[in-house]
Structure formats: structure tokens, C-alpha cells
UniProtKB/TrEMBL annotation:
The keyword Ribonucleoprotein does not apply. The lineage of its organism: Eukaryota, Sar, Stramenopiles, Ochrophyta, Bacillariophyta. GO terms for molecular function: pyruvate dehydrogenase (acetyl-transferring) activity. It comes from Pseudictyota dubia. CDD domains: TPP_E1_PDC_ADC_BCADC. This is Transketolase-like pyrimidine-binding domain-containing protein. The keyword Oxidoreductase applies. One of its GO terms (biological process) is pyruvate decarboxylation to acetyl-CoA. Gene3D superfamilies: 3.40.50.920, 3.40.50.970. Keywords: Oxidoreductase, Thiamine pyrophosphate.
Length: 827
């Protein structure tokens, strides 16, 4: 294949006001670049710009003629940035980042720093050699599943090694091997992880797309496109929390009462590809990072492909570095073929963030030499030809060698560097080969960070709690919150506290007990819809109690980033159905402990009002059974609270738990249901409570077990008189934990009644009742004297009109009929 570098004639040469000049001048023309309008044409791969104005092709006929004449020549669909000299990059730093020319000049010290240049070269060749070895291991069947290689983009890990520090938080996507290498993660451990070995970074539980190293703050490796964006924002927020609270990490990466003060220049760095940068999470993270002045550097790896699709075919904004303009976030655009310029510009951008100026964007224009994955058919337009061309013309390693061979380095020095690097790659492969497979039982051990029978009452509060509270909560604020707590406790003693007040009391007690506890919610300052986060921002400030934009996925994601960095975030959803927006993040929260090999706990508590009550009149979207949707997400503990004591005790336990928990309270009973609390006490997270039928009804075989939760508890209690009028009675098993399920309490009741009715607040297909029924049939079948009766919501969406809702949502009347049918043998 020949590569077409022939210049195309210009029609006009009008420079828009946003353009900036490129030096030097070419002939009589002053070269101008305006990313929003320009197209560049070249005479050869290393040439300067010949002309740079967006042109109209003269005619389709002329284009067709030219194509026919040059059918053996290749013109890349996305032209390279060979014109981009350091002067162009420097101008961007001055114009967009506010650097002086003298400040920018300091970054050129790298040009003559032989040791640092050699390190860049080694980092690039290590990345290339490692990925080639990964490809070989994949072809030999040692690496399985999905794998995504980074060949051609080695200037990125070189920049990371040069400009990013070990204690900076690093978040990447599924093509992260080289980012981990550059962050100091052991090559052998990475290779072993890819080969599913116990010696891997995550003990073989993560794989190619999930590399983590807690000691080096390499925090993923995330497979859902763009999900890492809010996580990285949460990690950046955790740095601000450390500074505000006066905390830092000890050697075990646990919070300690120690100021970093002026020495704290940590930042969070997130890598995002071409396709991912078009995701809506990008706008949200720019908004959040700008609003909170987060120390966040967004690195856009711009290889012109979303998987294999040409980015321009699906996206309007190719120039991601400009995406922050509306938010006051500066960006810089650099040529990924020039690793030295990427390192210099990247360090300048990182330093801008380190110096407290807020977020920034670094867009690196690269070409990926490999397909999306080794199994990729690459059928998309132009991909195969582009790959061949890029290997020949846009290799950052070749560019480096051509530039510095004979000037800065001898061929022997470069050869010795390659030899040193390849030895590391070979050692990594050997280590992976020798490492054993993880034991079978490891999977179950990594389900939850805390055992299901944990007694949270024995868990100690941080030693620094009192000191941190004293320096972050004013005397006036402390007096106000203590008065509020006293009022709630008095209500609790009198049996007058509501479910939402009980949750609010639990939150305040835990936020005072542990200052690393934070909270996120919409309308938080006003107390949200039910007062669950009431007075949190007024007491703990915006740093710990954050009002959020109306996108649950965004602030659940930020909470995940906080949870990975030593904090205990609470997310209040107002209405739990809104959590549908955050299903990707909820799923990843459940996966994190396992897929990091147990390195990262996930102390995240999500709570809110949910369920579907009779006569709810909220319509289909507000009546969806989110609790059923999330039942299938591994790693979650899911609780329901039909009473204030359950809401209080479960909330306290979940906030102290080291894994992700979800607490749902009945939307129609939040303020109506009142009760007494066992103050100061946590409740087990694998619990159910029996409201017992009379011994006489059990003896006569006229008792039935009813399993229910949320609004079903009230419906069942209210149905007891009518059921007794029919000559029967019920054991009501209130399921306070849907997962893990308290099968022992269910067994206890069934051993008395031998009959079961499930009053379910989810759909018949795929609902909670279906899961309970299957579990009872599998584990307690011998205790049943009759088939299980399920009273579930129909699979029809819940209508608004009460006349239609009667056909969908089950209630007390249905329970009375179901109990009589089962107890009398009619069913």
C-alpha cells in the first residue's frame, strides 16, 4: 500500500477568530489551525503544513477521477497532526491555561534531559512489548474472555510515568494494561491477572478489563464505557474531603488524623476513549468538576474510533479538549505520535490541576494499531487500511527513535534499553505461568466484605471522630444538631417517631460517630421529599453533604469514588425508582469487592422510599419494583423497612457495613407509620421478624405463614381480623432483608404452619416472590403441606386510576382470599 500525502488545492484561506498561528511560515503562507473548521494536507509524513483551511472538494467527478488515478494511494480518513510543533502546544498552554511563556519554557527541560528521555523510551517499549506478549498468550489460550490492546498509543503510558504520581488516583477503562504498568503496577501481577492466576493483581477475579492495585492507587480497569468518569470525580472529591477534615491515608491506606497541608498536591486522573467521551457522563463530570473545583485531569485518548466505528460517523464533537469551554475547564490538544510533547504538555496540564486551579482536559491524538480486541473482525469502514498505514507512519516509538538516534542516543543505547525491557516482559510471562489458579472457595469469600452475621454494634468508631468534629463543626452547628437529635430521640421513646425521622436520626448519629460518612441527594439542603437528609448540609457543610444534579447515576458514581478512597457515602434517592438511572453504577458497586480481589471495600449505602402500595396513584414510572430489579445484582445487601425500628436499625448497620447496601422504605408510609426505637442499636442485616399466629390455630392446622415486606406488612396486619373471622390465623414473616434472605426464620414459621402465602410487591415474572418461592421449594419443600400461593403484582405496568390498579396491585383483600384458599385446601 502506498500512502497519499499529496496536497489538495485550497479554495480560500480565511482564518476564523478562534484560530491560532503555527510557526514557522511555509513559503508565503502563514499556517493557521482552527480545529472546528480546518483540514490539513501534507506532502510527506514529516512535512509541515502546506495549507490548512477547510475546503470544498471541487466536484464529485473530480474526486472520482483523482481516486481512480491514485487508486493505489491511501489517504487516512482522519489526518495526523504532524504539523503540531511544540510552539503550537506552548501557545495553547498560554492561551487556555494562563501560563506565561517563561513558565512554559521550563517544561522544555525534558528535551535535553537524557535520563528522563530514556525513561520515556523504556516506558513505551515496555508497553509495546507487554501488549505483544499479551497477544501471544491470548493466541495460546492462556488469556481468555475479552482483551483490549494498546499498541500505537504508547505516548500515554509514557506521560503517566513521567507526570503522574503514585498517590494520584488513577481511573481507566477496559484498555488499561499499559496505564497500570506506567503507574508502577508489577508487570508479573498484571500478566498473571490476565491469565486468571492467583498471583494476579486481583487474584484472578478481575481479568484483563479490571486491573486494580490499591497500594499504587490504580483504581481500575472499568468495563462499562464511561462509567469511570463519575468514579474519578468522587476520588477527586475524596482528596478535597481529606484536606477539609484534616485526614490522610496511613500505610494500610486507612484514614488517619494527619494533615498533609501544603504537601498535598494529589490529583485524580481519568482516561477516556473517543466513544466514551461522547457519553452524557462527560458533560456531567465537567459540570461537577468545575462547580466543586475538583483536582481532576481528564485524559482523552483520541484514536478516532468508537470500538472500530469512525468517530466522525457517530459524533459531532471530535475536539473533546474544547468540551470544557462552557464550564470554564481548559483543554489542550497534542500529537500522540510525539511522546516527548505529550509528556511535556501532560505535565503542564497536571501541574495546572495540582496547583488548585480545578479540572483540565488533555486530548491526545493517537492511532490504535490493533483491533478493538484480538477477536475483532474489523468490518467497519476504513479500519484495516488505517491500521496498516498507522503502523508505518504514526508509531510513537519509531518517531522517538528517528528523532533521537544519533543525537541523544546511540543505537547501542536504544538496543540495550529494549533488551532490559524485554527481560521484564519475559519475567512477567514466567511469573504468570508459575502462579497457581485461585482456589474454588475464593469466589464465595469475595461475595461480601463483611459476613452476613456481622454484629455492627461491636464495630468501633474512628479514634479521630471527636477531634475532626470539633474542627469542622462549629459550636453553634453542634448545639443545633444535638437539639435536633434529642427531639427525635424523645419521639422515639414515646413511640411517635416516623420511618423517615428514624432514618434521619440514624444518619446523624452515624455522621457524628464517623466523620468519614458523607451524604449525597437531590434537594438535600431542603431535606429532600421525606426529610431523610434533613439538616445534614446545615451541620456538616457542603463538603460532606452534597446537593446533586438530577441524575442518580452521576452521584451514585461519585459516591463509589469516595467509597474507594476511605469514605462512607450515603446516597438518598428520594424515590427509589429513580435509581433506574444508576443501574450501571449500582451493578459495579456490587462487583467491586470481588473483581478487585478483595482489595477495595465498597461502604456505600443507598436508601429511599419505594415499593408499590394499594391506591398509590403514582402511575407506572413511580411504581416500579426497583427492589426486584436489583435482586439479581451480586454483592448487594438489600433491606426493607416497614417500621421505624427497622428503618433505624438497618440504616445504622448498613452505614457501618463495608459493602454496598440498599435500604428501601414504604413510600406511602414514610410519615404515617410511627413507633418506638431501640436507640443506639444496630440491627442484623440478615433478619426477618415473625408476628405469630395463635398457638391454638397452629395446633388445629389453621395457621398459614405469610411472607411479605414494605406495604405488605401493614396490609397483612390489617387483614388479621378478617382472616380470623374465617376461622384461620397467620404467621406474618416480615422480610427485613431480601438479600441475604433469612431462610432460618422462614423455616421456623413453616415448621409451625406448613403452608405458605407470599404477598409480593413486585411482578410475577422475575419478582421477589418468585425468588422466595424458588428458595423455599428447594430448601424447605418437606415442610410444605400445600403448594405455595404467590400474590404478586401482575406483569402489567401499574396504572394511575385506582379502578385499574385493583387488577394489578395485590392488597389485604387478596391476602384474605389467598389464605382461606390455602388453609382450606381449595388451592
Amino acid at each position: 500500500m502506498k500512502f497519499n500525502w499529496l496536497a489538495i488545492p485550497v479554495v480560500s484561506c480565511t482564518a476564523p477568530s478562534s484560530a491560532f498561528t503555527i510557526a514557522p511560515q511555509i513559503g508565503a503562507h502563514s499556517a493557521v489551525f482552527a480545529p472546528s473548521q480546518s483540514r490539513l494536507y501534507y506532502a510527506n509524513p514529516r512535512a509541515s503544513v502546506v495549507n490548512v483551511t477547510e475546503v470544498e472538494v471541487k466536484s464529485k467527478q473530480e474526486s472520482a477521477t483523482n481516486k481512480q488515478k491514485n487508486e493505489d494511494l491511501y489517504t487516512p480518513m482522519r489526518l495526523p497532526l504532524n504539523w503540531m510543533t511544540w510552539d503550537v502546544v506552548a501557545d495553547q498552554l498560554v492561551d487556555s491555561f494562563g501560563y506565561t511563556k517563561q513558565e512554559v519554557e521550563k517544561y522544555t527541560d525534558l528535551d535535553s534531559d537524557k535520563e528522563s528521555l530514556l525513561k520515556l523510551y523504556k516506558d513505551m517499549t515496555l508497553a509495546r512489548g507487554f501488549e505483544n506478549a499479551c497477544n501471544q498468550q491470548y493466541m495460546q489460550g492462556k488469556i481468555k474472555g475479552f482483551m483490549h490492546l494498546d499498541n500505537g498509543q504508547e505516548s500515554i503510558p509514557a506521560f503517566v510515568s513521567y507526570a503522574i504520581k503514585e498517590d494520584d488516583r488513577k481511573y481507566s477503562y477496559y484498555r488499561e494494561h499499559c496505564h497500570a504498568l506506567a503507574s508502577g503496577v508489577d508487570p508479573g501481577a498484571i500478566m498473571a491477572e490476565l491469565c486468571m492466576k492467583e498471583g494476579g493483581t486481583c487474584k484472578g477475579a478481575g481479568g484483563s478489563m479490571h486491573i486494580f492495585d490499591k497500594q499504587r492507587y490504580f483504581q481500575g480497569g472499568w468495563a462499562l464505557v464511561a462509567e469511570q468518569l463519575p468514579y474519578s470525580a468522587g476520588a477527586a472529591k475524596s482528596i478535597l474531603l481529606d484536606r477539609a477534615l484534616g485526614l490522610s491515608d496511613n500505610e494500610k491506606i486507612e484514614k488517619q488524623n494527619a494533615h498533609l497541608l501544603q504537601n498535598d498536591d494529589r490529583i485524580s486522573v481519568v482516561f477516556i476513549g473517543d466513544g466514551g467521551s461522547q457519553n452524557g457522563r462527560m458533560a456531567e463530570i465537567l459540570n461537577a468538576a468545575s462547580k466543586d473545583n475538583l483536582p481532576l485531569l481528564i485524559v482523552n485518548i483520541d484514536n478516532g474510533r468508537a470500538i472500530n466505528t469512525f468517530t466522525d460517523d457517530v459524533a459531532k464533537n471530535r475536539y473533546v479538549y474544547q468540551a470544557g469551554k462552557h464550564y470554564g475547564v481548559p483543554g489542550i490538544y497534542v500529537d500522540g505520535a510525539n511522546a516527548v510533547d505529550v509528556a511535556k504538555a501532560g505535565k503542564a496540564a497536571a501541574d495546572y490541576v495540582r496547583n488548585g486551579n480545578g479540572p483540565a482536559i488533555l486530548q491526545v491524538h493517537t492511532y490504535r494499531f490493533m483491533g478493538h480486541s484480538p477477536a475483532d473482525p474489523e468490518h467497519e469502514r476504513g479500519r484495516k487500511d488505517e491500521k496498516m498505514w498507522a503502523r508505518a507512519e504514526q508509531d510513537p516509538i519509531s518517531w522517538f527513535e528517528e528523532k533521537y538516534r544519533g543525537t541523544m542516543f546511540t543505537e547501542e543505547e536504544l538496543k540495550e534499553a529494549r533488551k532490559e525491557v524485554m527481560a521484564k516482559v519475559k519475567d512477567a510471562v514466567k511469573f504468570a505461568d508459575k502462579s497457581p489458579m485461585p482456589p474454588l472457595e475464593l469466589a464465595s469469600k469475595l461475595e461480601y466484605p463483611d459476613p452476613v452475621d456481622t454484629d455492627y454494634n461491636t464495630r468501633s468508631a474512628p479514634e479521630f471522630a471527636e477531634v475532626v468534629n470539633a474542627r469542622t463543626i462549629s459550636p453553634g452547628q453542634m448545639a443545633a444538631i444535638q437539639e435536633h437529635i434529642s427531639e427525635l430521640r424523645q419521639k422515639a421513646k414515646q413511640g411517635e417517631i416516623s420511618i423517615c425521622e428514624a432514618m434521619n436520626l440514624a444518619i446523624h448519629e452515624e455522621m457524628l460517630r464517623d466523620p468519614t460518612t458523607t451524604i449525597h441527594a437531590e434537594d438535600l439542603q431542603a431535606g429532600s421529599s421525606y426529610g431523610i437528609p434533613s439538616m445534614t448540609q446545615q451541620t456538616y457543610g457542603k463538603i460532606r453533604a452534597a446537593d446533586e444534579i438530577i441524575d442518580e447515576g452521576h452521584f451514585i458514581g461519585k459516591a463509589i469514588g469516595e467509597a474507594m478512597n476511605g469514605y462512607r457515602p450515603i446516597v438518598e434517592l428520594m424515590n427509589c425508582n429513580f435509581g433506574i438511572y444508576g443501574m450501571a453504577e449500582i451493578s459495579s458497586a456490587g462487583n467491586t469487592f470481588l473483581q478487585t480481589g478483595g482489595q477495595y471495600n465498597m461502604p456505600l449505602t443507598i436508601m429511599g422510599a419505594g415499593g408499590t402500595s394499594p391506591d398509590q396513584a403514582l402511575g407506572a414510572e413511580h411504581s416500579q419494583p426497583l427492589h426486584a430489579y436489583i435482586m439479581g445484582i451480586p454483592g448487594l445487601k438489600i433491606g426493607t423497612a416497614a417500621t421505624p425500628d427497622a428503618a433505624y436499625g438497618l440504616a445504622k448497620s448498613m452505614i457501618r457495613d463495608n459493602g454496598p447496601c440498599f435500604l428501601i422504605a414504604p413510600v406511602k408510609l414514610m410519615k404515617e407509620t410511627k413507633g418506638v426505637l431501640d436507640l443506639g442499636k444496630c440491627m442484623p442485616l440478615k433478619s426477618a421478624v415473625i408476628h405469630r399466629a395463635s398457638d391454638q390455630s397452629v395446633k388445629e392446622g389453621k395457621a398459614v405463614t405469610v411472607l411479605t415486606y414494605l406495604h405488605g406488612v401493614k396490609e397483612s396486619l390489617n387483614a388479621i381480623p378478617a382472616i380470623k373471622d374465617e376461622g384461620y390465623d397467620i404467621d406474618i414473616v416480615e422480610l427485613r432483608c431480601l438479600k441475604p434472605m433469612d431462610i432460618d426464620t422462614i423455616r421456623e414459621s413453616l415448621s409451625r404452619t406448613n403452608k405458605l402465602v407470599i404477598l409480593d410487591e413486585s411482578t410475577r415474572s422475575g419478582g421477589v416472590g418468585a425468588t422466595i418461592s424458588a428458595s423455599v421449594s428447594e430448601e424447605l419443600f418437606d415442610l410444605l403441606d400445600a403448594p405455595i400461593k404467590r400474590l404478586s403484582m401482575d406483569d402489567t405496568p401499574v396504572p394511575y386510576a385506582s379502578s385499574m390498579e385493583l387488577a394489578v396491585v395485590k392488597r389485604g383483600e387478596d391476602l384474605i382470599e389467598g389464605v382461606v384458599d390455602v388453609a382450606s385446601g381449595k388451592y
